[in-house]
Design a protein that fits this description.
Blueprint: H1 7-25, E1 40-41, E2 70-71, E3 76-78, H2 80-91, H3 94-97, H4 107-116, H5 121-137, H6 162-171, H7 177-185
Antiparallel strand pairs: 1-3, 2-3
């Protein structure tokens, strides 16, 4: 006799299974080669988008599905599920998303929040600059206090609703590795 899970756990499990199946259908490995925290390499062949239906997830304006992926240097990518998880971690951190003066996103706060959430340290260093730049160009972060040194001080979040952030990231092309390298030269670490 199977025990019934509470509705919220069952719904969460269904979403997790949908994400795994979506990744498999796209040609990926949902559990990674040895750890779910490892970044996977981008596919070299174009794969078709998932058709509508239960596995496709919620459709957004323009017919796009779910959280977008973030390309990183050396052909690595951060999957949509990983982007969602990292944004959720940032939004849950009071030092980043709080209402007090001085709160906001910096590279060091981002790295600390991701580390506290158990993210693989090698992943944190690769992901932080690209994620911060993407949030900036998607207008999720407030304008920098200093245009010459845009990453020198904390930048408050303009948006704190995950659905709105998801939509903004979908509408904004992720930064290229070259763009991230250029911002690193301007102080993004």
């Amino acid at each position: 006799m199977a025990l019934e899970q509470p509705a919220s756990r069952s719904a969460g499990r269904i979403v997790q299974l949908r994400d795994y199946l979506s990744e498999i259908l796209r040609g990926g490995e949902p559990f990674g080669p040895s750890s779910p925290d490892l970044l996977r390499r981008a596919h070299t062949t174009a794969l078709p988008e998932l058709a509508g239906g239960a596995l496709a997830g919620p459709r957004l304006r323009g017919g796009q599905i779910g959280w977008p992926e973030l390309p990183l240097a050396a052909g690595r990518i951060l999957t949509g599920a990983q982007v969602q998880e990292l944004v959720t971690v940032l939004l849950a951190n009071g030092e980043i998303a709080g209402d007090d003066a001085g709160t906001g996103l910096t590279a060091s706060r981002c790295k600390a929040a991701l580390g506290a959430a158990g993210t693989d340290p090698s992943t944190i260093g690769r992901v932080t600059p690209a994620l911060l730049l993407w949030l900036s160009i998607a207008d999720v972060l407030a304008a920098p206090a200093d245009a010459v040194a845009p990453w020198a001080t904390a930048r408050p979040l303009r948006l704190t609703e995950p659905d709105v952030i998801q939509r903004r990231l979908r509408e904004t092309a992720p930064p290229t590795p070259d763009a991230v390298a250029a911002e690193r030269a301007r102080g993004l670490r």
